[in-house]
Amino acid sequence: FAYAEIWITQDFWPDFRKKHLLQALVDYQKRERRFGDIYPQGDQN
Questions:
Q1: Which of 6, 4, 31 is nearest to 40 (CA)?
Q2: Residue 5 belongs to a domain
Q3: pLDDT tens digits for 23-36?
Q4: Domains of the chain: total
Q5: Which of UniProt's keywords are assigned here (predicted)?
Q6: Given its phi and psi angles, is residue 38 left (phi above 0), alpha (psi -120 to 50 degrees) or beta?
Q7: Prediction pTM value
Q8: Mean pLDDT across the chain, nearest whole number?
Q9: Which of 10, 18, 34, 35 is deepest in the core (most CB within 10 A)?
Q10: Residue 25 included in any domain
C-alpha cells in the first residue's frame, strides 16, 4: 500500500541543516499515525 506524510519548514532548502532534519524527526515521532483509519486504535466497533 502507499502512505506518505509531509513536514513543512519556513526555511529555504539552501539553509536546511542537520538541526532542521532532527526537528523533523522529533516532530514526526510525536504524530499519532492511523494510516488512513478514521478512529483511534481501540475505538473500533
A1: 31
A2: yes
A3: 999 998 898 777 66
A4: 1
A5: Transferase
A6: alpha
A7: 0.58
A8: 81
A9: 34
A10: yes
Greatest distance between any 2 Cα atoms in the chain? 48
Q: Please answer whether residues 36 and 21 qualify as being in contact, where contact means their C-beta atoms are separated by less than 8 angstroms.
A: no
Question: Which cell goes with 36?
Answer: 488512513
SS3 readout for the chain: CCCCCCCCCCCCHHHCCHHHHHHHHHHHHCCCCCCCCCCCCCCCC
Cell of 25: 524527526
Instruction: Tell me if 27 is assigned to some domain.
Output: yes
User: 44: burial class by Cβ within 10 Å (0-12, 13-18, 19+)?
Assistant: exposed
pLDDT at 45: 55
